[in-house]
Amino acid sequence: MCGGWSVRSYIIKARLDAEKMIVFREGFIMIKISFDKNSLIKQLKTMYSVVVFDRGKKYYQKGMVGKLKISNHRTKEKIKITADVYGSDTYNTEMVFNFLTNRFSNSECDCPYDWGKCKHSLAVGLKFIDIWEETCQIDNEFKNFEEIKKLLISFAKISKNNDDEKYEYTSDDLAYEDDEYCGEEDALDITDKNDAIDYLDKQEKKKERLKKLLQMIGINAEDLSAEALGELESKVDSKSRNKEIKKIKSVNLPEIEKKKGIVNLTNKYHILFNTEYTPRLEIARNDSSMSYWRNEPENILKEERAHLTLSQRELLKSLNETNFWYGSNIEWGDLFELAKDSGFEVFLNSKLPKNKLTFNENPSKIEAEIYQEETRNQINYGEVMEQKDFSFKLNGDFYKKKSIYSFCGSVNVVRIIGNEVQIHPITKKLSNIVARIFEAGRNYHEGYYQYQRQENFVWTDVLNEEEIIEINEIMEDARKYFDCKTDLSETFQVKKFKKIGPAILVDYDSEKHNLCVRAAIDYGFSKIDVAHTMYKSTRGGIASFQRKDFKNRSKFHIKINGQEIHYADVSHKEEKKLFSKLHLDEKYGFTKTLKCVRENPKKIIHYHENHWPQIKELNYPIEFSRDKFEFFQENFKADFDVDMNAAQDWLAFDVDCYLGRDRIALADLKSYLKNKEEFIRMNDGRMLRISNWEELERFILMLESFYQRENGSFEGRIYHAPELENIFVNSEYYSAKVADGFKKFISEAQNGRPLKKVNLPVKINKTLRDYQKDGISWFHFLRKYRFAGVLADDMGLGKTLQALTLLEMNKVKEKPSVVICPKTLLFNWEDEARKFFPNLKTLIIEGAPKERAKNIEKIKNYDLIITSYSTIKKDGAIYENKKIKFNYCFLDEAQFIKNHKTQNAQAVKKIDADYKLALTGTPLENSVSEIWSVFDFLMPGFLGNYNNFTKRFLTPIMKHNDFKALTELRKKTECFMLRRTKSEVLKELPPKIEQILVSELTEAQNILYQEILANVKTEIEKTVSEKGFAKSQIHILAGLMKLRQVCNHPTLLLKNKDYTKYESAKLESFKELIGEIVSSNRKVLVFSQFTQMLDILASVLNKDKIEYLYLSGKTKNRKELVEEFNGSDKKKVFLISLKAGGTGLNLTSADNVIIFDPWWNPSVENQAIDRTHRIGQKKSVNVYRLIAKGTLEEKILKLQEKKKFLFDNLVGESKDLFKKLTWDDVKELFK
Questions:
Q1: Nearby residues of 202 by Cβ (< 8 Å), 6 or more positions away
Q2: What CATH architecture is 992-1000+1061-1229?
């Protein structure tokens, strides 16, 4: 074995019992030779077919090799080995061994088996290996080649070496002998040769027998002269075929022919190595420019048969049989060996002296290198692993700038460099690698096989899977046959795994919420995802499961890890079985391509609940590559430690959170909620699902009302105490340790009054009802803790009186209180103050700017200042600049600041007061955002900023009808909002009877309505489509207004204002109803949104001579009109604009109410009705709502009924104050 040599040194490495070496010195050259028995035997295996090697080995083992003779060869470093081998005949066998290359070569045998590489020569080679091994054991120190040859020759003579003993053959041996010539691939193509010879022995004459025997060894008897045939006939004298053939072959036919004067063919023909189009060997005449190829060698075989040597005959036969055009399997080494032995001169392309090729018998070894590529990530059927490929690289003159022709055969490499032919022996394994490199090089370059130096091409190839498994043998052979360099270890640990089975691989990342489940075959060292190897085929309409590489199936699965190479046979059967089982049943959660990926928590939980149990029932081994795929259910719990200091308006608490028994950080819980996770990952890797998820959400939202300090504790103002208490009271999920001050405060908050009783002035105490006294106590509870609140009593329950009583009881010198109310109620406050508290100094700030400024200068002289919303917008800057601070600030009809963006809201929020209160019977009309705006005035920050309020309450309640969010908002505000209804506190108040009077549109009115409906619907749908719903509000309201006007009276919409020319169904109903009421000597309030409609009603009343009063937005003397209506028996009807007279009026003299047209917001209608159904009313009140059948008005009533929960659950009264119209609401109106 050779590790490489240079010009001055040759080194061949091998082992002899791991220690003994034979060293040769010749001149200044030192050759280090070692004996390796296994290596020499492996070499013989590469030289012979499997059948021949096995038979030859049996010959050797049975002692069928005779006396071995070792003699000198004409080449210094070689020896000749000869011996007789006994079979059915005795065969003389000769072999040559080269000490320099450590190789056998040029075996010959006189048996009929193709003159060499037969079982007899193999047996001789094995016998020689034994002789050499015995020689090394005697003497392992030599000085030169002559001495080693002498010692081997001498030792061969004196060794037992079978002496002259001959082997006695059995019938089995004879049968075995004949099989070789009748069954081997390389044997002559003769059918039933024994029968033919037996037949000739009996039936044919000696000449015919000779003809058959010559045919057996490839000679045509007709090509021989009579002299040659005569000489050969003398050898046919035995019935033993083998002996006869041996004698025939001993005859030197060319010598016989020379005696006849025949010309030597080497002077007649030459060989051309032609590289045009495709490389090929051709034979050509010396006297012609024509070369012979294809059929011509066959003709020469016939024409020159008598003159050809055996080598020439074999060369021509090979040229005739070789197809150079499709020459992927051409044995170039054998062809050039035959060309060399034939004696013919060989030229490159043309017979020119400069083109003559010479054969280098002892070429330098080809430089090569074996290495591993740098580490890379390889996805091997779904498994990501580090892998290093083995590469074999050719170096040296492959990168030089000269013409080189290179060919690879099964056991050799032929290179033509310049005019020199080199034949390099290699093994079959190495030839496969080199052949692939040459093929890649041929594809890379233009032309065929002529390789020029290329900058970018690397003469290398990656070892395939079989070669990786045999890497140790390949490296050993490479060191022997190449000048091979490598940094790889001498040996790799190659291990084959045989036990395989199915497995489930789970890659679960609980942090990124990614789950991948794979079905795999476990090969012991690696697991293969069958989704990457198998698929379902429906080819030809027939379903079947196939492997993806079925056309070029991998035989092995290999994993390289450092010095370890693990491999296993690919089990197509097991992979198909697993794939088909999981593919055909959806319960396992795989797709049809056997993929199972879930990428969000909800899908992961669904998979865990619906598919994972079935996976576990398979009882396959389950391997988790990351987090374990298991979930547990636990409740969220928390422990509170609460402290409070009311005097400093300070509330603080510590809280510890738990999942089951495990303590968990609050930050993890917040993240869990924020990201809407389905589970939470604990520190020990467990995955927990929170059973009471909604309770956790409630808890986290509550914390938003407080400020978290750096140490983790929370603090805030004490007005958040009810919300905090509401969390942990009566709950199994919380425990709380609370301070006494907190308990006291909660008791007062729940009772709505201070623990200490409030003493009322004696005079007013007799006037106030019990619920009003409770209201004043509630005011004082708020005052004690400097809170603010909303008195939301039903209309007509005396909110004004309660407020004035509070002011009387808590007057502060030179610090007046202020009431801000609608302009229409200014004098109502003044009258009430004078009536009940004559000593309460009041001042109305209204009128011209100079007058207002003058009054503002003297406000410290008054106890109560009364101003309007419209005025405060103008004077707000004055109060602010003068730094006027009030005792109390009351907002009457606080819904005037329901929109926090309006000037009304912004102006009143700048008022500076020690205490603030809001009065309104309708704290909520359209949206819960109105509540935020009112409390932003009363207690800024109590409901958080608007963005947080929107996220926590507004969006869930208004968009998603979230009842729980609505309940939370009510719980948070209920301590600061007092609401009593008439039905609760005024048991003596007469009942309110409500009726809906439906009128059917007249024919003409209906035609007009349907026409307008169609036009409005088309226009609105187009506008919404183009601009969107939000930007189409004005168009929608205008369209709906037209429809409502037609329902009242066509005149409201048409240009002709003479109402008598058109019919109105509701007007006719009104006439009948008003007639009945007036005739019964009762009074009635008539409300309409449209003043034009009120004008028509006034005309009807005038026509019928019914006395009435009329109040609209233009009316200045509201007070006088109210007093006149209540004090006059003649005025039976009061026509009132809904917006102008819906609030601040006390009209208890009427006991009937007509709502001529319904309004979107029923609270507005209720306010109008409460003008008469209030304190002081002695009679039952009848309410009539006039509705046009089959119109928009009926839809309005249904819409009101549909949305009743909001006000009821937030404020506490059964009145539905519904939100702004949505697009779905609008579409419903047009159906």
A1: none
A2: 3-Layer(aba) Sandwich (3.40)
Amino acid letter for position 437: I
Average confidence (pLDDT) over 452-476: 82
Other beta carbons within 10 angstroms of residue 1008's beta carbon come to: 17
Residue 527: name the closest of 491, 485, 483, 497 by CA.
497
Tell which residue, 187, 173, 68, 180, has the closest CA to residue 126. 68
Q: How many Å apart are CA 480 and CA 40, to the nearest integer?
A: 11
Share of residues in the chain with pLDDT > 70 (%)? 82
pLDDT at 105: 77
Long-range contacts of 942-948 (CB under 8 A, 24+ apart): 942/717, 942/719, 942/720, 942/976, 943/972, 943/973, 944/704, 944/705, 946/900, 948/704
> Long-range CB contacts (< 8 A, 24+ apart) of 1057-1064?
1059/1096, 1059/1099, 1062/1004, 1062/1005, 1063/1002, 1063/1004, 1063/1005, 1064/1002, 1064/1005
568 close to 380: Cβ distance less than 8 angstroms: no
The residue length of the chain stands at 1231
Would you put residue 68 in left (φ > 0), alpha (ψ -120 to 50) or beta? beta
User: What are the phi and psi torsion angles at 910 (to 5°)?
Assistant: -90, -10
Q: What is the pLDDT of residues 751-795, one digit of tens each?
A: 777 666 788 888 888 888 888 999 999 999 899 889 999 999 887
- Map out the domains of the chain as residue ranges: 2-172, 188-259, 361-491, 496-624, 632-749, 760-985, 992-1000+1061-1229
pLDDT digits (tens, 9 = 90+) for 1122-1153: 889 888 888 899 999 887 776 667 888 888 89
Cα→Cα distances 864→509, 815, 888, 1041, Å: 68, 9, 9, 42
Which pair of tokens denotes residue 91? 């065969």
Which phi and psi (to 5°) does residue 1181 adopt? -105, 125
pTM of the model as a whole: 0.49
3 state DSSP class of 1161: coil
Using the predicted structure, report yes or no on whether residue 9 has a pLDDT greater than 70.
Answer: no
User: Within 10 A of 312 (CB to CB), how many other CB atoms are there?
Assistant: 24
Domains 760-985 and 992-1000+1061-1229 share a fold: yes
Question: Which superfamily is assigned to 760-985 in CATH?
Answer: Tandem AAA-ATPase domain (3.40.50.10810)
3-state helix, strand, coil in the chain (%, to 5): 45, 25, 35
Residue type, 962: D
